Amino acid sequence: MKKRIITSMLAVMLTVTLTGCSKENTVKTSSESNKVKIVTSFYGMKALVEEIGKDKVEIHNVVPEGTEPHDFEPKAKDMINIEKGNIFVINGAGMEGWSEKVLKSVNNSNLEVVDASKGIELISAKDHEEEVEEDHDHGEYDPHTWLGIETAKIQGKNIMEALVKADPGNKTYYEENYKTFEGAMNDILNTYKPKFNEVSNKKFITGHATFGYLCRDLGLEQNSIEDVFAEGEPSPKKLEELVKYVKQNNVKVIFTETLVSPEISETLAREVKGKTEKIYTLHSNEDNKTFVEAMKYNVETIYNSLK
Ligand SMILES: [Zn+2]
């Protein structure tokens, strides 16, 4: 482990000191480091960075595919990967409870840490869930900022600014990619906001409470099987309440997430003679959807379930 750290430190030092000395060495090193090395915390951040950085960035994602990011604990190898990065992108808003500890022990003073939620007006975790218990692992805010349209635009901009700073030679490239991304987000908002205004039913059910920011964008209301931190296997009482909620509000579709007990969603759907449908929360990679594709799918699918 130590050896690898020393090797990578040496590589950095060589790049700095040998520039212009040995052509062979320089070419080799610069072709390896041509791309900005980005470390992202979990898939949602990776998908977002891909929209802005496209082929000028090389991304290493920390939380492995299929792992629930709310309860993630980093390992020593994650530390090494973060040390190799130029930029470390976290969602922030309390999503990565592990990041602070990791950053204290990471040996890379040049690492630029991007809190993608910087500047976002956060929603209190208690706003959705009266029963959220005191939980020392999680923060006081709903961390799912990347799943809202307005909030994703702010995150994209924070990422764009970090890329411009790290790689000023490609400033226009990143700015244009951001404009395209912002345009796609605005298109979704402008297309669907009037549509949602026309439906009388604004209520839907998900696996865990992930769409607080999207609800704020579109004037919707979510209810969920598990809480905002994907915790709390529902009690029989909670299930009973959900059945009542679904019946009273004429909810026909229960959205399912791969990482959150789809069986319970299915039970609930059977109970009320409704159906389940997939939704992309981007906690992990499902079906290789790009960020924009997943957002479009989610908004369209929620709309179709309400109209
Ligand atoms: Zn979540």
Radius of gyration: 21 Å
Order of helices and strands: HHEHEHEHEHHEHEHEHEH
| CATH homolog superfamily of one domain | Nitrogenase molybdenum iron protein domain
Q: Which distinct ligands sit in these coordinates?
A: zinc ion
Shape descriptor? globular
Going across the biggest sheet, name each strand in turn: 2-1-3-4
What would you call the structural class? alpha/beta
Oligomer: single chain
CATH topology of one domain: Rossmann fold
Strand content: 5-15%
- Sheet having the most strands: 4 strands, parallel
Span of the ends, CA to CA:
56 Å
What is the CATH architecture assignment of one domain? 3-Layer(aba) Sandwich
CATH class annotation of one domain: Alpha Beta
Number of strands: 8
Task: Give an overview in words.
- The chain has 307 residues and is an alpha/beta fold.
- The protein has a domain of 117 residues: 3-Layer(aba) Sandwich (Rossmann fold).
- It contains 11 helices and 8 strands.
- The strands form 3 sheets. A 4-stranded parallel β-sheet has the order 2-1-3-4, with helices on one face. Strands 5-6 form a two-stranded parallel ribbon.
- The chain is globular.
- The chain starts with a helix and ends with a helix.
- The protein binds zinc ion (ZN).
- Zinc ion (ZN) binds next to loops.
- Zinc ion binds next to loops.
- Keywords: Signal, Transport.
- Belongs to the bacterial solute-binding protein 9 family.
- InterPro entries: AdhesinB, Bact_metal-bind_prot9, Lipoprotein_PsaA-like, ZnuA-like.
